[in-house]
Design goal:
It is a single chain. This protein has one domain: Tetratricopeptide repeat domain (Serine Threonine Protein Phosphatase 5, Tetratricopeptide repeat), CATH 1.25.40. It is built from 6 helices and no strands. It is mainly α. The termini are far apart. It is 69% helix and 0% strand.
Amino acid sequence: MFERMSVDPNDATFVGALACCAHTGMVPKGLELLFFMTEKYKIKPRLEHYGCMVDLLGRLGCVKEALELIKGMPMMPNAAIWGASLSLAESTWTSRTCRTRSQETNTSRAVEF
């Protein structure tokens, strides 16, 4: 995607791209972008990037993965992360893919976090 651009993407470019992935439910593409951001372009993820990824995973009911991402962040979560984690709680109650007891427990932990 970025190879066709005449300039290298920066951290803001990746925030926009990850947000688009979150709104369209493109988990594999979001994970790929996060990988390219860190490995190819040597850009350290900021809270905004993590927030987009938590939002993306939460919208699709990937509660466990989102919580693991939050716990593995090298910085303390902020309001953006907590706001994105609210989608974890919502997805648990509205999505059939995340109605297991363990995921509901994980969502409760995310809200308490």
